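[step 3/7] inverse_fold.run input=structure_tokens len=354
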């Protein structure tokens, strides 16, 4: 009975100002109401799809369980968007808004805004999407002592491709792998991107770095050199390795581009240096590996002529398998890294649109 009386007294009692200290005049002990207002943050869609160069809206709205209006009117609403890293160990600041104050961060500056279609709309608009924008974003809404969050994934249409440098197989530490992808108009792929590529038929026996620091490879056709012919298809995981000392290949991801990819019609075959100059003379640049893969996968580009690319490799894209041109499968065929000074090939160029 005493316990019940004590609880009743607490439920109806508010703290009064301390009589001996005027500085506490406006302070109050917080009165907790079990059935009081509760802030809820909701993402209407958990996954949004877009492409490089496009615009996208990441949905986020906030409500109160026991109040019809969006805000109480006594506290300013603070909206904060962050991006979750692939290993979930930290968050990257994207955008913060409170009242009339707005701030964006890093390479998001000038590209992110709140939609604010209603007083409870905290949706984020991202313009001119870049490859690095891919990932999971957290929308956090704070009002007084209440806060809640929702997570939205931004997926990009694109293609995953394996990459190794001129030095050959297993020569990249993690940091070199990141730079290698950037040099080829791409970024290091995530596990989700590699998994989707495997589901679409990507089969590659060499292990490569992924963005979370793991080393994996996709197998659709089990065989002895790739885990054994009696194993099941899947993405094989080597685990996490030393990013500075361990060396593997890398899986890169690229998306569509704002430009024209083409094979340069030239009267003669060219050395590498001649190929670079021929593209420049045509108002373009020698194409990168990522641009070749994007043109092949996303635009259906098909050409049976081997040509130089910016990294010194020679490749050609086949979308329509036929005799003497990848008869068994659609693929980007890899000739190798020939002698730049003496071997003669065509060249693939890329002209960016202004």
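[step 3/7] decode complete -> sequence:
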């Amino acid at each position: 009975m005493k316990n019940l009386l004590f609880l009743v007294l607490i439920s109806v009692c508010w703290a009064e100002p301390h009589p001996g200290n005027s500085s506490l005049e406006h302070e109050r002990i917080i009165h907790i109401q079990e059935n009081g207002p509760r802030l809820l943050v909701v993402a209407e869609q958990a996954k949004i799809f877009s492409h490089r160069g496009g615009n996208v809206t990441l949905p986020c709205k906030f409500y109160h369980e026991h109040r019809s209006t969006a805000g109480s009117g006594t506290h300013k609403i603070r909206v904060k968007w962050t991006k979750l890293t692939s290993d979930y160990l930290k968050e990257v600041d994207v955008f913060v808004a409170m009242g009339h104050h707005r701030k964006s961060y890093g390479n998001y500056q000038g590209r992110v805004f709140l939609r604010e279609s209603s007083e409870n709309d905290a949706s984020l608009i991202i313009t001119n999407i870049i490859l690095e924008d891919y990932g999971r974003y957290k929308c956090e809404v704070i009002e007084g002592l209440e806060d809640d969050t929702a997570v939205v994934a931004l997926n990009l249409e694109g293609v995953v491709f394996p990459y190794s440098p001129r030095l050959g197989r297993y020569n990249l530490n993690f940091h070199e792998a990141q730079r290698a992808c950037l040099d080829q108009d791409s970024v290091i792929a995530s596990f989700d991107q590699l998994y989707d590529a495997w589901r679409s038929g990507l089969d590659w026996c060499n292990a490569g770095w992924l963005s979370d620091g793991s080393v994996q490879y996709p197998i659709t056709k089990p065989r002895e050199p790739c885990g054994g012919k009696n194993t099941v298809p899947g993405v094989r995981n080597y685990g996490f390795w030393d990013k500075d000392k361990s060396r593997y290949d890398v899986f890169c991801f690229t998306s569509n581009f704002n430009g024209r990819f083409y094979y340069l019609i030239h009267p003669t075959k060219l050395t590498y240096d001649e190929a670079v100059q021929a593209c420049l003379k045509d108002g373009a640049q020698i194409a990168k590996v990522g641009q070749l893969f994007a043109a092949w996968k996303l635009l259906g580009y098909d050409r049976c002529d081997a040509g130089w690319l910016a990294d010194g490799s020679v490749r050609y894209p086949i979308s329509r398998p036929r005799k003497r041109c990848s008869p068994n499968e659609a693929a980007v065929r890899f000739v190798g890294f020939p002698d730049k000074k003496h071997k003669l090939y065509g060249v693939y160029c890329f002209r960016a649109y202004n």
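[step 4/7] annotate
The domain at 39-64+76-156 is CATH 2.60.40.10 (Immunoglobulin-like).
Residues 2-12 form the longest helix (11 residues).
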